[in-house]
């Protein structure tokens, strides 16, 4: 499966109010492996960044003066994204800007070109209800090194997002995959007969049970007391 992690930097927070994209970064993952086939653009948006936006990304109008406009890179971007699963953190924000840029040059919305869009912010909210789920917070929680992120940058953030996503979905990796024998036909699987193995049963300690109950209580509170175990009880 071909997946593209995408991030943008913009002149402000509102595409509807005329803010524009100043940077696009894309990182490609194929069969859960980074390929190095990434895509990155700085864009001359034709307008100044708001002060707060500039503090976030540090990209000046002077730096962007000789950079291409979005219309000049649109075909290359769409060809790169064609039929891929596009993965974005807080997808509604980036999609709003991308669809606005596409509309300005008379092109259809992004969903017309890609297979699907996945929002890792929504994924994280479902996995960690009641927790902070910004990209920085997820990096800290999942052990992803973001020490080089002093300013936001679209390509760096897309690379961090790819690492975060791999950790968020690590359970999708089958334990018996032979990682050294990947082929174009997919991973090889090794059959193991476990019937002759006597598996020990480990009982949870009092401390572990209490910790488990505390997590359940947090989940129940975050869901408004609508968890399955409360209803079944």
Give an overview in words.
This protein has 2 domains: 2-177, 2-Layer Sandwich (Nucleotidyltransferase, domain 5); 205-233, no CATH class. Strands 1, 2, 3, 4, 5 and 6 form a 6-stranded mixed beta sheet that branches. Strands 7-8 form a two-stranded antiparallel ribbon. The chain is an alpha/beta fold. α6 (135-142) packs across α7. The longest helix has 17 residues, at 206-222. It is built from 9 helices and 8 strands.
Count of DSSP strands: 8
CATH class of the largest domain: Alpha Beta
The biggest beta sheet reads: 6 strands, mixed
Cα end-to-end separation: 41 Å
Superfamily (CATH H level) name of the largest domain = Ribonuclease H-like superfamily/Ribonuclease H
Q: In one word, what is the shape?
A: elongated
Secondary-structure element order, N to C: EEEEHHHEHEHHHEEHH
Average pLDDT over all residues: 86
Q: Report the CATH topology name of the largest domain.
A: Nucleotidyltransferase, domain 5
Identify the CATH architecture of the largest domain.
2-Layer Sandwich
User: Given the structure, what is the number of helices?
Assistant: 9
Pick out the low-confidence regions. 173-185
Structural category is alpha/beta
> β content, as a range?
15-25%
Write the layout of secondary structure elements.
Layout: E1 2-10, E2 21-30, E3 33-34, E4 39-42, H1 51-57, H2 61-64, H3 70-81, E5 85-88, H4 91-104, E6 116-119, H5 120-127, H6 135-142, H7 154-168, E7 177-183, E8 186-189, H8 206-222, H9 228-232
Parallel strand pairs: 1-5, 5-6
Antiparallel strand pairs: 1-2, 2-3, 2-4, 7-8
Helix pairs in contact: 6-7
